[in-house]
Amino acid sequence: MFYPDSNVFRCNKPNKSYIYPYFTIKPICMQNNRIFGISLIAFMMIFILFSCQSEKEVHPLKKDIEELVFASGSIEWEDAYNITAQTDGVLKDVRFEIGSNCLAGTVLAQIDNPTNRSNQNAATQQLSIANENASNSAPLVQQLEQSILFAEEKYKQDQLQFVRFRKLYEAQGASKVEFENAQLAQESSYSNLQALKKQLQQAKLQAQQNLINAEMQFNNARIQETYNQVIAIEEGVVIKKLKAEGDYVRKGDVIAVLANQSDVKAVLNVDEKSIAKIKLGQHVYIRLNTNSQQVIRAQITEILSAFNEQTQSFVCKAQFNRSLNKVLFGTQLEANILVAQKKNVLVIPRSYFGYGNLVQLKGENQAHKIKPGIISSEYVEVKAGLKRNDILVPLKP
Predict the structure, then answer these.
(1) Which of 206, 226, 246 is the last residue of a domain?
(2) How is 182-236 classified by DSSP, letter by letter?
(3) What's the pLDDT tens digit per position in 132-170?
(4) Same domain, yes or no, for 152 and 222?
(5) Between these two residues, 324 and 346, which has the higher pLDDT value?
(6) Could you tell me if 123 and 218 lie in one domain?
(7) Which domain holds residue 24?
(8) Does residue 392 belong to any structural domain of this protein?
């Protein structure tokens, strides 16, 4: 006998029962087993059909929704700069590796350039000669000074001789020719003396100019010599090593890249279709490939205006909300940028939302158009076109 209220089949034969899902069945007699089995199967099929029909009835519901823009990217350290070769030569005495922490002024390597050394030696010798020629003990200076002394003595004698012949000429003790010869000798001595003094002055000036040029060449050669040293300009960590011991480098070749590990940022590649939604200050949820279980929060701090041809995307930078420890340069990451969010709005599952903003309602042959708002990975906001009691069914292919 079947009791609908209890959903239990009972029989008069005690101490034996059969258990089925959702029902308890006790045979009344052996002859009725087949009838009970057929009835049970039919009842279960009806129950399953009813349950499947109920599960397919999807209604719009009220829910908080967020719109996220996906972006790939990597970790970069700020203040990165290239260490470049300032001269040609063979790289020697390399003292750095990737991860080396270098202070400002640290010598990272040497470049063997014989030309620079030769120029430095020549400039040193030229400076020494120029210093000697510019001193008062220079041979030319001493020679001219000695000539000036003789010229001064000669001028004094000729001047006395001129005065003597002038007196004699006035007293008619000497002829006019003798007087004029004495006068000419005096003027010649004076001119010679002045010429020697000018020559000395020019010689000293020329020696000073030579000294200045020699000092300039010496300083240039010394600077060129310092180019043989590869020096860290600012404090940083070596993130790239592009040249090794024994490599021949040319002026301008990048030897290494240094960066500031205390200022870490996420560089995000955003698709060109989504870049218009990105604003400064938006929240970013980041997962590093080295620890995909952890979500790190950040904020958009920079939007680069140039399009990156290599990645075919626009580039944004995000600053982390907290300091990160031991994050390696270049670590790959995935990010979701929060571009919009709303509280308690009408939404439908995204799987029921089709191209052209269409949905399919139960009992209607034609697809129904709605006005969407925020579209997330799971839900679509409905601004207009649906009510809470509408029943959604999958769109017809």
Answers:
(1) 226
(2) HHHHHHHHHHHHHHHHHHHHHHHHHHHHHHHHHHHHHHHHHHHHHTTEEE-SS-E
(3) 888 888 888 888 888 989 999 999 998 999 898 888 888
(4) yes
(5) 346
(6) yes
(7) 2-55
(8) no
118 and 49, same structural domain? no
Nearest to 359 by CA among 377, 379, 383, 386: 386
The answer to whether residue 217 sits within a structural domain is: yes
With vertex at residue 255, the alpha carbon angle to CA 251 and CA 261, rounded to the nearest 5 degrees, is 135
Distance of CA 134 to the CA centre of its chain: 52
d(Cα 341, Cα 283) in Å, to the nearest integer? Answer: 11
The Cα-based distances of 84 to 109, 235, 256 in angstroms read: 11, 16, 7
- pLDDT band (50, 70, 90) for residue 45: low
- Give me the amino acid identity at 117: R
Q: How many CA atoms lie within 13 A of 66 on its CB side?
A: 11
- pTM > 0.70: yes or no: no
Query: Which one of 226, 259, 280 terminates a domain?
Result: 226
State the DSSP H helix or E strand holding residue 126, giving kind and residue range, or none if neither: helix 114-134
Structure tokens at 349: 């599952």
Domains: count for the chain: 2
pLDDT per residue over 355-397, tens digit each? 888 998 888 888 889 999 888 878 999 999 888 888 888 887 7
Same domain? For 196 and 127 the reply is yes
Confirm whether 128 is domain-assigned. Answer: yes
At 373, list the tokens: 């708002």
Nearest-CA neighbor of 383 among 396, 369, 394, 395? 369
In a domain, 151, yes or no: yes
Read off the pLDDT of residues 275-326 as tens digits, 9 standing for 90 and up. Answer: 999 999 999 999 999 988 999 999 999 999 888 888 889 999 999 998 887 7
Q: What is the mean pLDDT of the chain?
A: 83
